[in-house]
Amino acid sequence: MNDELEMIARIRPEAAPYSERAKLAARRKLLTTQRKRRPYGITIASVVAAAAAASVVAVNVSAPAGQTRGGIGTPAVVALPKIAKMSAVEVLGKAAGAATDLRPRDDQFVKVSSQTMYGSFALSATNEQTGEKVPESRYLNRTRRTIWLSADGTRDGSLRIEHLEPLPYPGWPIPEGAHRNKGSQWMRLPACGAVPATAYTELKKLPADAEAMRHHLYAKDHNKNSADVEAWTAVGDLLRETYMPAAQRAALYEAAATIPGVTVTENAEDAAGRKGIGVGRVSNGVREEIIFDPTSYELLGVRGVVVDEKEAKSPVGSLVTSTAQLTVSVVDEAPEVADEADEAGKEDVSDADCG
Predict the structure, then answer these.
(1) Do the beta carbons of residue 81 and residue 289 sit within 8 Å?
(2) Helices and strands, counts by H and E, the chain
């Protein structure tokens, strides 16, 4: 987040600098927004796309098994996805039938650990005072994350992010700001009165039958994308760093199978190197896949592979998204996280977080 604020400062040097209180509130606001944004497609915000919402690849520097990389700084390249003979209805039907439920109590927390790699984007812009042009930039932001989510949304949650070595976005030079986030950080996710849509109790209110769930997926604004693209994006939004009850998850998979253009690939690999079955469709020149275990049909992760160089602005076969859902469990407590402002002897910013 710090690098994004500095980029804005480069473009608008006449603007007053952010206070520490504002920086902290903006950082947490961005984090909350990113958890709600689309995890698979390419997303570019007004000046900078969310970097934390974009996370992808392995815990270490080596590429997942079966992928090649010429060392740090060279993105992984995979074989183009080969469409399998299995149908999306068959695979997603099995995933629906295998759905189980941890059934957390309202006073408990859902704990999700993951590895992530997503694209981080900044649009080109012009410094209004100097006329200096800031070029468009892209890079692959990589993290290891553990999140604690209040089951009923009424208790403060926690998030631990370990920043991993960033990689160049295939075909693009890595920008200087890509290396500024280092080490690990903790964030408190404050309960702000309104229960978040990702809380287990809220997800339990979603439709438990495929037809109604499909209507839910298509009910959102389409923006510049087609209704089918937005529906597939909505499927991913409901799976990323959440835990859907079994009935709703089964309905989601069955509804996803009805989205036009969804096909199946074999030997899809997640960020942890696990091989699975990929179910996905092409959007913006990238095949966006949800990966399932080939035996248990549990969710493994997601990946995005470039299939159209012109549309994706990246070489064909480039891996531009890769995640792995490592563990999902129910725990009684979330780690307590002190506000950065508190530690610095400054005013508490919890109200700003909820604003």
Answers:
(1) yes
(2) 10, 14
Considering the entire predicted model, what is its pTM? Answer: 0.78
CA distance 148 to 69: 33
β-bridge mates for residue 169, sequence order = none
H/E stretch holding 252 reads helix 246-256
State pLDDT tens for residues 294-339.
999 999 999 999 999 999 999 999 999 999 999 999 999 999 998 6
Q: Tokens standing for 154?
A: 């009424």
Of all helices (H) and strands (E), which one includes residue 158?
strand 157-163
d(CA 135, CA 122): 8
Closest to 18 measured CA to CA, from 32, 33, 6: 6
**Whole-number Å distance between alpha carbons of 74 and 291:** 24
Note every long-range contact of 301-305, with CB atoms under 8 Å and residues 24 or more positions apart, other chains counting.
301/114, 301/115, 301/270, 301/271, 301/272, 301/274, 301/325, 302/39, 302/40, 302/236, 302/240, 302/270, 303/78, 303/268, 303/269, 303/270, 303/271, 303/278, 304/40, 305/78, 305/80, 305/81
Full residue range of the structural domain in which residue 13 is found: 2-354
Q: How far is CA 281 from CA 83, 96, 194, 265, in A?
A: 11, 19, 34, 10
Cβ partners under 8 Å of residue 351, min gap 6: none
**Total domain count for the chain?**
1
Q: Which amino acid is at 133?
A: K
Handedness of CA 328, 333, 335, 336 (dihedral sign): positive
Rg (Cα) of the chain, in Å, rounded? 20
Tell me how long the chain is: 355
Distance CA 178, CA 111 (A): 28
Going by C-alpha positions, the residue among 302, 307, 325, 315 that lies closest to residue 118 is 302
Express each pLDDT in 274-283 by its tens digit: 999 999 999 9
